[in-house]
Amino acid sequence: MTSTETPNSDVIQLNSADLMRILQSGGINLENMDFMNMDPGLAQQIQQLRQTQQTSDPNLNPAAVRQQRPRPSTSRQPSRGTQAVGPYVEIVEQPKARGLRFRYECEGRSAGSIPGENSTPERKIFPSIKIHNYNGPAVIVVSCVTKDEPYKPHPHNLVGKDCKKGVCTLRIRDTSTVSFPHLGIQCAKKKDHRGQNIDLNVVRLCFQVFLPDEQGKITRIVQPVVSQAIHDKKALNDLVICRVDKTSGKSKGGDEVFLLCEKINRDDVRVRFFEEREGQIIWEAFGDFGQNDVHRQYAIVFKTPPYSNQYIQQPVEVEMQLQRSSDLEGSDPIKFTYQPEDPDPDRIMEKRKRKAANLNFLESGGSQVVTQETLKQRLKLKATRTSAANRGKQEPMIKEEDLSKNEIAQNY
Question: What residue stretches are annotated with the RHD domain (predicted)?
Answer without folding.
Answer: 84-237
